[in-house]
């Protein structure tokens, strides 16, 4: 296995860690309405737990409201109940046609809790990236031993993986900083 393949595999795995971080941070409330806030809601759709986005249309008409319009009118009550029971801190209201979900303002204390959650998620991503580095360095050592790779090539590969690690750790820090600003913004 050539050194460049190992480095490319490491880069792909680190990119996945950044993608996962981004997906996790989208779920954290910032005080602004976003349809992503309801991604975790599952609705009992004729006996099957189904994501809310498959039951109806979600939209954000303003910065403080999410509107859910189920494809089937009889689902209004079921959807409203599912949002209420999802324990997201929302109090949906049903007007007979759509469900309006007001997104309340965040208190300073709650914002700080969300920042702590963001930092923990970011640290988990950093750990994942470091684990990728460790695993791929092990692969390089194994390749060196099994396939008679030169020590210089292995060290070059490890240096390339370290550069990738540094780059992706900085990406994590940048994504975290942006999310922290978003959460603390009033």
What does this structure look like?
With 186 residues, the protein is of the alpha+beta class. It has helices at residues 3-26, 76-85, 108-146, 151-184, and strands at 42-45, 48-51, 56-62, 65-70, 93-94, 99-102. The strands form 2 sheets. The protein has a 4-stranded antiparallel sheet, covered by helices on one side. The protein has a two-stranded antiparallel ribbon with strand order 1-2. The longest helix has 39 residues, at 108-146. It is elongated. The mean pLDDT is 88.
Main attributes of the structure:
186 residues; alpha+beta; two-stranded antiparallel sheet; 4 helices; elongated
The radius of gyration is 22 Å
Helix content: 55-70%
Order of helices and strands: HEEEEHEEHH
The portion of residues forming beta strands comes to 5-15%
The major beta sheet can be summarized as:
4 strands, antiparallel
Shape, principal axes of CA atoms: elongated
Unreliable sequence segments: none
Kindly report the average pLDDT value: 88
Distance between the termini: 52 Å
- As laid out across the biggest beta sheet, the strand order is 3-4-6-5
**Total beta strands:** 6
Helical run tally: 4
Structural class: alpha+beta
